[in-house]
Amino acid sequence: MAHRDFLHAGEVRDSQPGSLPSVEPNVSSSEANHRISNNLAILASAVRIRASDVSRRQQHLSHDEVSLILGDVSAKILAIAWLHRFLSDKPGADCLELNDHLYRLSETLLSALSDPQRAKLVRIGVGECFVAVREVVPLCLIVTEVVTNSLKYAHPTKVPGKIFVGCREECDGSLIVEIADDGVGLPEGFDPQADGGTGARTIRALAQQLGAQTSFDSGPVGLRFKLRVPSRTSRARAA
Q1: 125 found inside a domain
Q2: What is the DSSP letter of 134?
Q3: Which one, of 79, 140, 73, 69, lies nearest residue 109 by Cα?
Q4: Buried-most residue among 11, 21, 24, 218 (CB within 10 A)?
Q5: Does residue 221 lie in a domain region?
Q6: Where are the alpha helices (DSSP H) in the chain?
Q7: Which range, 33-42, 73-82, 138-147, is most confident?
């Protein structure tokens, strides 16, 4: 049954139930090995949890279900590999421009996980969107989850569709990351702020790490996800 479970594209918990490991991107090239080790540990944790879910199933997996699981794992590997390239461009920077990089990350996911004829990526962000380096990893992991979910569930009949991705800065300094599709929307009665599987919980946990708010606007012609990250001044004060 095709429905939006907001992740099976992955959980990034450690061995303690209900917790997410701190995701800390590197700010020094001398710490590259530590960053790679940390992010690969996150990936390994996600794969173990998926394997545990599969082992508890009573029924055999269909070919489509196996394909979805492998696609989820592939998306995580792609995201982490991309993040290493992204962060190594300016290893000493305090902040990075996110808009173009989110588009490029989404482009990578689409080209690897979807038929080019089935999904078209559209940029909706306007202007530059700067974020602190330490916020890049959780932001990109959230984007990976939502984009992967759209690829999997927005068009269950496999008709061509569009995915819209962008980031913008509000007048008050807060950041808005938006991802939308033109698919079937959420199932009736489904509350993404409370329901869902490990994916939904992962998005909520990563958003909490950022002190951010999430919203989902579902209609007959698609789903729009919005992540609002407080202004840098507010985030610095909270830290």
Answers
A1: yes
A2: G
A3: 79
A4: 11
A5: yes
A6: 32-55, 63-88, 99-113, 136-153, 198-210, 232-238
A7: 138-147
**How many distinct structural domains can be found in the chain?**
1
Using a pLDDT cut of 90, give the percent of the chain over it.
Answer: 21
Q: What is the number of H-type helices and E-type strands within the chain?
A: 6, 7
Of 69-73, 113-117, 161-165, which has the strongest mean pLDDT? 161-165
- Across the range 133-152, mean pLDDT stands at 86
Domain enclosing residue 143, as ranges: 29-238
Tokens 């992204």 — which residue? 86
User: pLDDT digit string (tens) for 70-97?
Assistant: 877 887 787 778 777 766 766 666 788 8
Residue 24 lies inside a defined structural domain of this protein: no
pTM of the predicted model as reported, rounded to 2 decimal places: 0.76
**Residue written as tokens 């012609």?**
221
Residue whose entry in the numeric block shows the structure tokens 């932001």 = 139
C-beta pairs of 115-119 under 8 Å, 24+ apart in sequence: 117/160, 118/155, 118/158, 118/159, 118/160, 118/161, 119/151, 119/160, 119/161, 119/162, 119/163
Residue 54's CATH number: 3.30.565.10
